[in-house]
Inverse folding.
């Protein structure tokens, strides 16, 4: 296997794992406001499978990392800043819009906009930076 394929694989996995780990910290910090806004009780949260709470977001971040890698291959500016800009646009056009619709039509607390939306922005930026650094893009 060529060196670039190994680096691409590492970049995909690293971005997803780092975004997932940041999510664990993010939701520990914002646990109470998130639970209030989403209507989840402590009993419901504790009844969730700890394995699934880790694996489902990780699977989602792996999908996002692959999609971002494919998107970065299509853009001409593959610098680290170019990747960050693309991640911001993906967040603005896709994930923020979906979060707004989900919160509004789901009748959930408005705080979820900044809690969930903020985490999604940080996750996408993390993937962009991790991939850019591992693949050694131009600054």
């Amino acid at each position: 296997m060529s060196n670039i394929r190994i680096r691409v694989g590492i970049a995909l996995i690293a971005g997803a794992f780092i975004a997932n780990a940041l999510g664990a910290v993010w939701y520990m910090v914002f646990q109470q406001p998130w639970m209030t806004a989403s209507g989840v009780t402590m009993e419901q949260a504790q009844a969730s499978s700890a394995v699934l709470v880790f694996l489902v977001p990780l699977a989602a971040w792996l999908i996002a990392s692959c999609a971002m890698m494919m998107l970065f291959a299509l853009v001409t500016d593959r610098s680290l800043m170019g990747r960050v800009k693309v991640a911001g646009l993906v967040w603005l056009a896709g994930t923020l819009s979906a979060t707004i619709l989900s919160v509004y039509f789901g009748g959930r607390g408005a705080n979820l906009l900044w809690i969930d939306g903020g985490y999604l922005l940080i996750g996408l930026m993390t993937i962009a930076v991790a991939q850019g650094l591992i693949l050694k893009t131009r600054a």
